[in-house]
Design a protein that fits this description.
Keywords: Cytoplasm. This is PF03932 family protein CutC. InterPro entries: CutC-like, CutC-like_dom_sf. It holds the Pfam family CutC. The chain has one domain: TIM Barrel (Alpha-Beta Barrel). It has 8 helices and 10 strands. The protein has helices spanning about 15-25, 45-55, 80-95, 110-120, 140-145, 165-175, 195-200, 230-245, and strands spanning about 5-10, 30, 65, 100, 125-130, 155, 180-185, 205, 210, 225-230. The strands form 2 sheets. An 8-stranded parallel beta barrel has the order 1-2-3-4-5-6-7-8, surrounded by 6 helices. Strand 1 (about 5-10), helix 1 (about 15-25) and strand 2 (about 30) form a beta-alpha-beta unit. The protein starts with 6 loop residues before the first strand and ends with a helix.
Length: about 250
Amino acid sequence: MVAAVPSVEIAVQDVAGARIALEAGAARVELCQALGLGGLTPSAGLIEATVAAAAAATATGFVHVLVRPRGGGFVYEADELDTIVRDIRAAVALGADGVVVGALTDAGELDLEAIARFVDAAEDADITVHRAVDASARPVDAVAALATLDVRRVLTSGGAPDCRAGLATLQAMVAASGPLEVMAGGGVRIPDIADLAAAGVDAVHLSARGTTTRGGLSGPGGGVAGFDVTDPGLVRAAVAAARLSR
């Protein structure tokens, strides 16, 4: 059986990272901030600037905005759910092609009622459900349940710390997904992409991060020294590996 060619999504935290992903041939970006916390909702200005960069490159379906109000787990109170809905509407109004969301119940199941609210708020924009699936009690059943909603794709490591450990579960998710796209993400390395493609995933997701100390010392109160940047070589290698996985 010939493996499908997965699309490549890059998690980026700035416009420079989005431009690198565009130039390297990635299918889309997940735009966020604070990847060290697992990713949080980016600012309105960052969304607007990234949408403009994609438009200048005539890239369609490219900008997908993570909407996550805080770090920690995925069980949200009413005010937090309201914030997510407002941020979804704001991201779509600024031109985002899709949003990346998720929520769990106190029992550790996917909060399908909350996700249905997110789908309504996004209107015609794509919905990706993020790795809240991997924190759920039954990840494969969670993916199957998403197939009943108007969700485009799910980002998952197969319920494991990384995609290599979750490979068998990823295969089970693909079998249970119906029309839902399964995107493998979580510790993806370039050599893993061929195995993930062979497992039948529709896409792979990675941050392709390096670190820079550009900007000088942070000083007292400025946080840690240095910050994340997108590594062009890693993005190009990921795109090439996906194409070679045919």
